[in-house]
Fold:
Amino acid sequence: MYEGYLSRNRLRLMLLFLIVLSVVLLWSPLAAFRERRAAERFPERSVEMIVSFKEGGGTDIGARLLAGYLAAELGQPVLIRNIEGKDGEVGFAELARARPDGYTVGFINLPTFVSLPGQRETRYRVDDVMPVANYVLDPAVLVVRADSAWKSLEDWIVYCREYPLKMTVSNNGVAASNHIAAASLEYSAGIELTHVPFGGTADMLRALEEGYVDASVAKVSEVAEGVETEELRVLAFFTDERHPSFPDIPTLNEAGIPVEMGSARSLAVPAGTNPEIVDTIHDAFLRAYENPDHQRDARTRKLSLHYMSSREVLQYMRAQEAFLSETLPRIGL
Structure:
């Protein structure tokens, strides 16, 4: 009787195993078929674009411009969602953990996206996202209010050397791109600054405009409007050559300060997104990017467009990680 009981149990287990195996064998091709169909039909609804900083910053300005042209190419609305916090980490983490179906894309800001995990425990890893293409490579600038006493970079440097730590300089977050640029300037120029971090570009520039800080290191697209309205004055570019839109403004290199910094803004999707969907987004992005009307509007907003493919962005990220691993300890970050 006991042996009969064991035989029945074995039979039940074998039957259960066969049922599970059948489900797995049937489910795998069915899931693959559904994934192919989803990729072929993509997009069937609106796409969300995450910007990890407040409205009005450089990333937001570019994202809102691109979204309209990208929507026209995809045939579906592209909706901006600003998710600010922790120097961009909150938005980056939201993008990283989104469903990898193509309906959530976002901007990763470099070097900030790769520098934050090197400075603290973050809720995302660099390889949690896959870059689609780069959109902007925005050079950093040193900027003051137009009514300030500093009319030139030389005036500013002289003041900083005479009064160590008195110069207050706002940035977009601890170990974020503007902070790294300002600290690199400080180190290379042999001066001492007081760095004042904020949670994003909009707040750091508001602090400058309202007189809470003396200067700021920002991106050119973020201050272009203030320069045109004569509220802000750019003292120098963190580039090797002068900017074509601002040919009268010198570079740090011209003053013997070998610092070149900026911020790349790359469109990315969660890792694991179907390659066919990634290709669809990339191709739509490239058509939008090359649209003459988009190029004209970008120039108007002083956006420094700079296309890179997914592979090129990955190479750029690896180079940034190597640069930061060497530079951050040297400048005390």
Observations:
- Residues 1-41 form one domain.
- The chain has a mean pLDDT of 89.
